[in-house]
Specification:
By secondary structure, this protein is of the alpha/beta class. The protein contains 15 helices and 13 strands. Helices cover about 40% and strands about 15% of the residues. The protein has a six-stranded mixed β-sheet with strand order 6-7-8-3-9-10, with helices on both faces. It has a four-stranded antiparallel β-sheet with strand order 2-1-4-5, with helices on one face. A three-stranded antiparallel β-sheet has the order 11-12-13, with no helix packed on it. The two termini are about 45 Å apart. It binds adenosine-5'-triphosphate and magnesium ion.
């Protein structure tokens, strides 16, 4: 099998049924190959699993079946090679525009000088038209401005893959058009691979090379794939003559939809009238066996680290690896190499089986429950900006905060004295203000 840049291979996702019995299949057997530099959009009705799929590419969630390869390597956790622009902006509320972008740049280019970093950040601030707003904090920004910061932050580190989850859904139509243009301009100069989720057919046609249409959930599938051959630069009217839809049997569909396939409007009508967004019969699938042994290993590892009073920073040092990944590996959501696992095993005095579990594929059941919006908000920040968060946490809380990298699993939602929502990092009893979840 020829290998593509980003390969989603027979991926299915099951979640526990809300009734408590069995599992619900969100989508099944999704196979997509995406080439380097491609701009791919996913369209589907609410709940069909678009965000779930995007989160899997981000490494924030794991497939129940199948796997995802990026440059031939299985995605086993988040990383700076994939940047996410979340629908809900996910900016650090206590940081300015400049600082929010710098956070990512610093993490991605640790060897750069302060001046180099600042120049790079300013370049992207200008690209998204935020010059003059550098020192504003997110509360002083409009939705469109916040989204621009998110885009600048994502583009600024030039990731292998940009993951955009309905980036324009919360923005008014006028501003949306402007930011879409900015996105096109940035993409033109970087030609990152983009995987974008949207509800908006026009947006998909305007931006993408290929559109994947998902059927309704549960048990959603990729119903059709439409190639968009409109030459770039494209106009929003899409009235140019050179528009063609080329997917399997797209020509006949275009014809039956009542238009010729040589103008943009026919594609719109094909996409809008297509029956693939109709409901499919739901077939319950038996729950997967959880690898219980691995879960137990994690408990052993955590207990051993506690008993020996070894911090994650110390483990990371011995392994020679980023602490965020080490923390994730000890929690079972990231895979170490055999050599790294051996080093950890030696340091913590683990038995052979427990040590080997560190270099196995992550324990699926350990992925946090993403329906809990509170946990998810922190998870996405920590997961995607892990490196950056470490720097920030060190700055905010001083030395020793590395052990708090575990805090994804140890937090609670509390109402502050002024009625605002806060998240409590129980590990060290310090407060991290996070008001916008
Ligand atoms: N952690 C979870 N546990 C249980 N069910 C979940 C979990 N995460 C998502 N789901 C369910 O999976 C389905 C797909 O969710 P997802 O958020 O991926 O949909 P979506 O296509 O992005 O929808 P929207 O367009 O509304 O954003 C939904 O029915 C959702 O309730
Ligand atoms: Mg979604």
């Amino acid at each position: 099998m020829s290998s593509s840049f980003l390969q989603i291979d027979h991926v299915s996702k099951f979640f526990p049924n809300p009734s408590g019995e069995g599992q619900v299949c969100v989508f099944t057997d999704v196979t997509i190959k995406i080439e380097k530099g491609e701009f791919v959009t996913v369209i589907g009705h609410s709940g069909c699993g678009k965000s779930t799929l995007l989160n899997m590419i981000a490494g924030l969630d794991a497939p129940s079946e199948g796997g995802i390869l990026l440059s031939g390597r299985e995605i086993a956790g988040p990383g700076l090679d994939r940047m996410v622009v979340f629908q809900n902006f996910s900016l650090m509320p206590w940081m300015t525009v400049f600082e929010n972008i710098r956070l990512a740049v610093r993490a991605a280019y640790p060897d750069w000088s302060k001046e180099q970093i600042a120049a790079h950040v300013r370049k992207y601030i200008e690209l998204v038209g935020l010059k003059g707003a550098e020192d504003k904090r997110p509360t002083a920004l409009s939705g469109g401005m916040k989204q621009r910061v998110g885009l600048a932050r994502a583009f600024s580190i030039e990731p292998k893959v940009l993951l955009l989850d309905e980036p324009f859904a919360q923005i008014d139509a006028l501003t949306r058009g402007v930011i879409q243009e900015e996105l096109i301009q940035m993409w033109n100069s970087t030609r990152n691979t983009v995987f974008m989720v949207t509800h908006d057919v026009d947006e998909a046609i305007l931006l993408s090379d290929r559109i994947l249409l998902m059927t309704n959930g549960p048990s959603a599938r990729i119903g059709e794939i439409v190639d968009v051959d409109i030459p770039r630069p494209r106009s929003r009217e899409l009235s140019g003559p050179a528009c063609q839809a080329r997917g399997p049997d797209k020509r006949s569909r275009a014809a039956s939809a009542g238009g010729s396939n040589s103008d943009g409007r026919s594609i719109l009508s094909v996409l809008r009238t297509t029956s693939l967004l109709s409901r499919e019969t739901f077939v319950a699938t038996p729950p997967e066996e959880e690898p219980m042994g691995e879960t137990k290993s994690r408990d052993v590892i955590k207990a051993r680290r506690r008993d020996k009073k070894v911090t994650i920073a110390q483990v990371a040092k011995v392994v020679g690896k980023n602490p965020t990944f080490v923390a994730a590996a000890l929690n079972g959501t990231h895979r170490l190499t055999k050599e790294e696992a051996q080093k950890v095993g030696k340091l913590l005095g683990l038995d052979k089986a427990t040590m080997e579990s560190l270099s196995k594929f992550p324990v699926r059941s350990d992925f946090p429950n993403t329906t809990d919006p509170f946990k998810y908000r922190l998870l996405e920040i920590i997961g995607v900006y892990g490196d950056a968060l470490r720097d920030m946490a060190n700055e905010m809380f001083g030395d020793g905060i590395m052990s708090a990298i575990d805090f994804t699993l140890d937090m609670e939602k509390v109402t502050g004295s002024q009625g605002e929502a806060r998240c409590k990092i129980t590990l060290n009893g310090k407060w991290l203000e996070y008001k916008t979840f």
